[in-house]
Known about the structure:
single chain, Inorganic Pyrophosphatase, 2,3-Dihydroxybiphenyl 1,2-Dioxygenase, domain 1, Aminopeptidase, 8 helices, 19 strands
Amino acid sequence: MNNIEFLNKTLNVKIDRPIGSSHPDYPDHIYLVNYGYVPNTISGDGEELDCYILGEYKPLKDYTGKCIAIVHRLNDNDDKLVIAPKNKNFTNSEIKLLTDFQEKSFESEIIRSSDYLEFNKNIPELSVTNLENSLNFYKTAGFKIEYDRPENKFAFISLGEIQFMLQEISTNDKWDIAPLAYPFGNGINFQLEVANLDEIYNSFKNANYKISFDIEENWYRQDNKLLGNKEFLIQDPDGYLLRFSEDLGEKDVWNMIVEYDAKYDKQIKDLLVELQNYLIDIDNWHTQILLPEYREKNFKIDMDKVHKQNGKIYLSIENDTLIGLIIGIVEEKDEIDKLTNDCAKTGCVIELIVKNNIRGNGIGQSLLRKMEEYFKSIDCKRINIEVFGPNKRGLNFYEKNDYIIRDMIVSKKL
């Protein structure tokens, strides 16, 4: 009998190594589940077919249960059946966990019956206006129907490990808590990790579906590493926003942060000029200017503040090239401050810039974290950063890093 044919069969098992017992040849190897064999069978190693018994937590001698899976060893010829109570199932991850005490020594895969469906712990159910239209859309991306209830206009669909439930809206749906308006799901997007992003993208294009955001490569910082994705966004027929994403792997935050070194003065001045040019570009009132003397004078002003106000400069360096900088000082309090606030020691970031062509790689966040550590070390209680009003990108960056707007300057043309 082919081992696959045991799936979903009820089998009688002899337990020769009950839970808690030791391997007969290796006393340090303890069986964490009941382990036995199916009599009158032959496995690839010429012995009777071995079994893991899951869901029973006391030592057994005999057991009758259902074969729910096969642990197929890729570097050995000895498959193992997985037996469970007839009314109990285990996910692949649970099987791996419970058999790891032995299977960790082998390279293996878990084989299930063709009708097996492992449900995710989180499965979005989308209310749709027309189930047929939605299915045509999702099938374009490669989704398949796992099961459906045509009488209820319901379908359960999957693409690899991605799962959705689709339910056509009806007038008597008790779960509708408010009227729906296009685009459905406004404020959320579903990230769907796939291995064939270009193929899915082209399928949508060929079917004349509108792409909301074209393919781009993005890297997102997680602590000291960057996680890469190639991704595009598209709305389904009801407006649900889907972000198809293909993993690009990870890499270290690829720069070194050092304290100020005068050998980078020229590059520091270049970056400060780049920042001022950026402010000029986004200034819709056209009040920002760049005088010829700005390069040298602004650098000197910043350096004087650092020296006089217990400041610090950190530089982000890649291959001996400056790619970002941050300058922080300790605020000086004037007489009005002393009359109107608690005057707690406060750090102030007066410059933060990353070269334009490499923004979005976590460099600005790393510099900001470094300056925060410095301010904490000298007992600052808070940090202030002045942001140019039209610099929405800068405001968004600081908000994502837990900064809030505390003071504002409003202006009016006369």
